[in-house]
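Student: I would love a firmer grasp of how sequence relates to backbone shape in proteins. Thank you; the sequence and its tokens follow:
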Amino acid sequence: RAPWGIPKGAPNPDETLDYSYEQVQTQLQNVKRGVADVVTAKKRLELQTAKLEQNVVKLETQPRQALAANREDLAREALERKAAAQAQLQGLDEQVKQLQDQQERLVAGQQTLETRIEGFRSTKEVLKAQYSAAEAQVKIGEAATGIGRGMEDTGAAIQRAKDKTEELQARASAIDELTSTGALEDLTAGDQTQLDRELAQISASSQVDSELAKLKAEVGSGDGATKEIASGDAAPEPQQPQQ
């Protein structure tokens, strides 16, 4: 599943950058192998040149030795071989020089490529960090605004919870209202009938009336005693003791 904010199937910049970096690294390795091959070929030609130089030195003494022995034919043959060796030596020198130039160009190209690869590596890491930061910012923004699919699911769950809560609250209010109006029977009343409950209510009401009348009588008798005390003679003041 593609990250939030990124179209499904879109290439991941991190993977693209890493793949490009691997490609240029492969090119650098190829350049290094090319440099190694050129150096190897140059060294091989230099060894051949050294052998030819030794052969030319040897061929320089042979004509003299042949003339000293009155063998002009051998002296001529030695000179011809010397000329051929010198010509071959000149050709090898030119090939070595060409390989040297090619080696220098490859080394310079290798250094330039290494510099560019190092710069690309730094840029790649910066771009990957920026992409990760932007991706995180998009996720945070989508989460904060509810755009993301996860927040949509969360919002739906919250709404379902609210609906269920409101439904239960309404049911509880309805039960309370029906109970207070007597529309719902008290389940704790057991097997009592409606008549039993009405008789019990009348009995309780009669008991309340009886107790109320008793209290009125008691309160009334208390008020009479108070009135008699108020209408009678005042109580004599206590005498002061003689000195």
User: Anything to note?
Assistant: Residues 1-7, 229-235 have pLDDT under 50 and may be disordered. The chain has four helices and no strands. The radius of gyration is 60 Å. Residues 72-145 form the longest helix (74 residues).
